[in-house]
Amino acid sequence: MKKYIVKRLLIxxxxxxxxxxxxxxxxxxxxxxxxxxxxxxxxxTAEEIARKRVEYGLDKNVFVQYFNWLKxxxxxxxxxxYRTNLPVLGMILERLGPTLVLTFSATIFSVLVAxxxxxxxxxxxxxxxxxxxxxLSFVGSATPNFFAGLLLIYLFSVRLKLLPIGxxxxxxxxxxxxxxxxxxxxxxxxxxxxxxxRLIRQTRGSMLEVLSEDYVRxxxxxxxxxxxxLVRHAxxxxxIPVVTELGMMIPFLIGGAVVTEQIFGWPGLGSLMVMSITAxxxxxxxxxxxxxxxxxxxxxxxxDLIYSVLxxxxxxx
Length: 317
Description:
Blueprint: H1 2-29, H2 36-39, H3 46-56, H4 62-74, H5 88-123, H6 128-142, H7 145-159, H8 177-211, H9 214-221, H10 226-264, H11 269-278, H12 282-310
C-alpha cells in the first residue's frame, strides 16, 4: 500500500507544477494589468506607477515572475494581494470553510439521491422507477447551474418565501446551525443538480452490467436474501465506475461553485476568485489555484485508494 501511495504522489507533483504554469501564463495573457486600479486614480503619478510595477515584479519576464512566485510558495509564502494588500493565505483560509461546507454538502446530497435511484432503476429496468430516474438524469445533466439557481430562487424564495435568497447567515448578526442549514439548501441543491444526473446514469449502467453476471445468479441460486445480493455482491462490484465518477466530480463541483457562490452571495473561494480575476490580482489567483489543484489531486488520490480497497488487485499495478 505504501508503494501504491508513493507512486500516486510522484505522479501528482508534475501535474501540480503543470497546472500552476498554465494558470500563471493564462493570467498574464489576459487583457489588463494589476496596475489598472492605480491608473484609474487621477492623482497617481507616473513615478508611483513605475515604482509599483517594480514592487510587484511586473517589470520582469513572465517566466521570471512565475519562478519567483514558485520560490516563495516553496518557502510557505503565497505573497500579498494586489487588491487588498492582505496576506493571500489568510484571505483563502477565511473563504475556504464556506466553500468546503458547500461542496461537501452538495456531494453528500448527490450520493444520497443518485445512488439509490440508480440502483432501483437498474433493479427494475423499464419500470416507473426507471423512467423517473432516467428523466431526472437527463434533466439534471442538461441544466446549467446559473439557470437552476435563478429558477429555484424565484420559486422557493420569491414566490413561496420558504428559503432565503442568498448569504450564509441572516443580516441580524446571529449565527446558528439551523440558520446555516436553511441558507445552505438552495446553493447545495443547485451545485448538485448536474452531479445527480451523471451519478444516476453511471450507477444504473454499472448495476445493470453487474446484475447480469454469473456470480449474482449464483448468489440468488444459493438462496441469499435479495438485499444481500444487491448490496454485498452487486453494489460492491459496481462501485468502481461510480467512485470514478465521484472523483471526476471534484473539479466540476469547485468550478460550479464559482457560479453558484456568485448567484447566492456565498462567501467562498469562488466569489474570491471572481474578484481576483477582475482585479488581475495574480497572487490571489495563484493562491486559489494552489488550493483547488491540491484538492483535485487529493481527491484523485483518495479515489485511487478506494479502488485498492474495492479491488485489491489494483494495489499490485
